[in-house]
Design a protein that fits this description.
InterPro entries: F-box-like_dom_sf, F-box_dom, LRR_dom_sf
Bound molecules: zinc ion
Strand content: 5-15%
Largest sheet: 8 strands, parallel
Protein name: F-box domain-containing protein
Number of helices: 11
Number of strands: 12
Strand order of the largest sheet: 2-4-6-8-9-10-11-12
Order of helices and strands: EHHHEEHEEHEEEEEHEHHEHHH
Shape: globular
Length: about 375
């Protein structure tokens, strides 16, 4: 199956009747209007006239999505609205060299190694790519299958900003997610988005993937709220892992990136998914996480960075921030790289989870964990 791209051939068939030679509005204004159009509409507009093609094409190619699935399907063959506007990569091959410089944001979904190798003619050279989204598989990988050279689609990409979707701490300990050598050399900002329940999984290994980010100065870890299923066990069932504390992973993260600013979003939600945790509010849980993590990080700094002055240690500790999704949305320029609809969905989900547990805490006075400690 050939790779598919977001340069769509689908979408509304309405084509505005604009004269071939003259445009009714200034170029800047048309570009602005086009920025709100869907990929399908943009593709249609590109075919209206040369003048409109010149304006609409850069907008169309600004965000290129590469996915192994057919138009409008996800990996199980089910229609997925988010991918409904994918077109064929052949479209962009025909348009050739001129398009390469238009791609600013690139999204690549996880795929089998045979998929990216099947497209032998396509060597992606996208020198202007600034932001790279990698949608990792259920197993936290980009490549479903081993390829020691890494994904061929990403060999000439040098993004400044990288976002791992469906990230899992334990897979940051793998030798490679399927990324080619040197992909992260220029990366300054990394955002990992993982489901809250994934936070309960320990990694044990060194965070090898993070060692490939030589120039990283900022990392954000967002725990994405998810539906709570009371019948599911979210923690680890193996007795050897009983009592494992997810906060160790955050400490390890801070330890692996001593020079990067670290922002942990939504850690206060994690304890809801662990049946063995005592009941407390999101704020209280987040505050506790912050105290525990910072204390441990400080101890590690004293042990591992003896040459650091107390001021430098303090500065490091302060560069580790804990916040919930609302604070994150207020403080950070997240809209530059995250989908606004998706973040709004998280917000709704977060409110639901929080509401659900606050109600349970009120109606379930039998839970006497704190009392039993006496
Ligand atoms: Zn690949």
């Amino acid at each position: 199956m050939p790779p598919t791209a977001q340069a769509a051939t689908s979408g509304p068939s309405y084509i505005p009747s604009i004269p071939q030679s003259t445009l009714p509005l200034p170029t800047e204004l048309i570009t602005r209007v086009l920025s709100y159009s869907s990929q399908g509409t943009l593709a249609s507009i590109c075919r209206v006239s040369k003048a409109l093609y010149r304006i609409a094409s850069p907008v169309l190619w600004k965000h290129l999505v590469l996915s192994p699935w057919k138009v409008g399907q996800d990996e199980e063959g089910v229609l997925d609205e988010k991918k409904a506007e994918c077109g064929s990569m052949k479209t962009r091959q025909k348009n050739g060299k001129a398009l390469r410089n238009d791609v600013i944001t690139l999204s690549v979904y996880h795929h089998s190694t045979t998929w990216c190798r099947s497209n032998t003619k396509s060597t992606l050279k996208l020198p202007e790519v600034h932001t790279l989204h990698l949608y990792l598989s259920e197993y936290g990988l980009l490549h479903d299958g081993h390829d020691r050279n890494g994904c061929r689609l990403l060999r000439n990409i040098a993004p400044k900003v990288v976002i791992f979707h469906n990230a899992r701490a334990r897979h940051l300990g793998e030798e490679s997610l399927g990324s080619p050598y040197g992909l992260f050399d220029q990366t300054e900002e990394l955002t990992c988005i993982s489901l809250v329940s994934r936070a309960l999984e320990p990694s044990f290994n060194d965070l090898v993937v993070l060692q490939k980010f030589f120039n990283l100065n900022k990392m954000v870890w967002i725990f994405q709220p998810e539906d709570f299923d009371p019948s599911r066990h979210y923690g680890w069932t193996e007795p050897i892992l009983a009592g494992y504390d997810y906060r160790n992973e955050i400490v390890r993260l801070a330890n692996a990136l001593p020079k990067a600013k670290l922002t942990i979003v939504n850690s206060g939600l994690i304890h809801f998914y662990d049946k063995d945790c005592e009941k407390m509010t999101v704020e209280e849980s987040q505050r506790q996480n912050e105290i525990i993590v910072k204390k441990e990080v400080e101890e590690l700094l004293v042990a591992n960075f003896r040459q650091w002055s107390p001021e430098r240690r303090e500065e490091r500790i302060e560069s580790i921030e804990f916040m919930d999704l609302n604070e994150f949305m207020e403080k950070e320029e997240w809209w530059k790289y995250l989908n606004t609809d998706e973040v709004q969905e998280w917000k709704v989900m977060m409110d639901e989870v929080e509401k659900r547990f606050s109600v349970e805490a009120e109606t379930d006075p039998a839970d006497g964990k704190e009392v039993m400690d006496d």
